[in-house]
Amino acid sequence: MVNTIVMSVQQKYKGERMLVIGHPWIKSQKLCKVFSIEDIKNNNARDIVLLEPLVDSHSFARYCQENSIAYAVVANSLDDAIFVNALGAKYMICEEDIALMIQPIAQEYLFDTRVLVLIHNEKEISKIARGGIDGVVFAEAIC
């Protein structure tokens, strides 16, 4: 029974579509940088709060989690990724090499947080897709 449930969950995540945030053809939310609790409170509810690396913003992440505010955070290491997921972030944004290290672990442990790579050019999408990363975010999506 347990194996059946695990296989079902794994199949669900295996078939997820790649996220593409900020491309002009695809409607998506903006990610807005914040630097204080006041910024978080004043953020447009339709936008995703974007926090600086976790080492500098863990208290803001906890605030977002406690107040059910969707947020993304920059993750610079596997340790960051584990904490970001535990703190309930919707997205973590990583450099490509870090994302390639984190993604298999995120899949193994069924992270709820999606792994994204910041890109500047549409041509980068296929490279990120071949790496099995959850998605990309264009720099234009960040305000």
What order do the helices and strands come in, and which of them pair?
Elements: H1 2-14, E1 19-21, E2 31-33, H2 37-42, E3 48-51, H3 54-66, E4 71-74, H4 78-86, E5 91-94, H5 96-108, E6 114-119, H6 124-130, E7 135-138
Parallel strand pairs: 1-7, 2-3, 3-4, 4-5, 5-6, 6-7
Mean pLDDT: 91
Task: Briefly note the CATH topology name.
Answer: TIM Barrel
Largest sheet: 7 strands, parallel
Number of strands: 7
Which strand order spans the largest sheet, edge to edge or round the barrel?
Answer: 1-7-6-5-4-3-2
Describe the structure.
With 143 residues, this protein is an alpha/beta fold. It is 43% helix and 20% strand. The chain contains 6 helices and 7 strands; from the N terminus they run αββαβαβαβαβαβ. It has helices at 2-14, 37-42, 54-66, 78-86, 96-108, 124-130; strands at residues 19-21, 31-33, 48-51, 71-74, 91-94, 114-119, 135-138. A 7-stranded parallel β-sheet has the order 1-7-6-5-4-3-2, with helices on one face. α6 links the parallel β6 and β7. Residues 1-12 have low confidence and may be disordered.
Briefly characterize the structure.
This protein is of the alpha/beta class. The chain is built from six helices and seven strands, in the order H-E-E-H-E-H-E-H-E-H-E-H-E.
Please describe the structure with a list of short key phrases separated by commas or semicolons.
6 helices, seven-stranded parallel beta sheet, 143 residues, alpha/beta, TIM Barrel
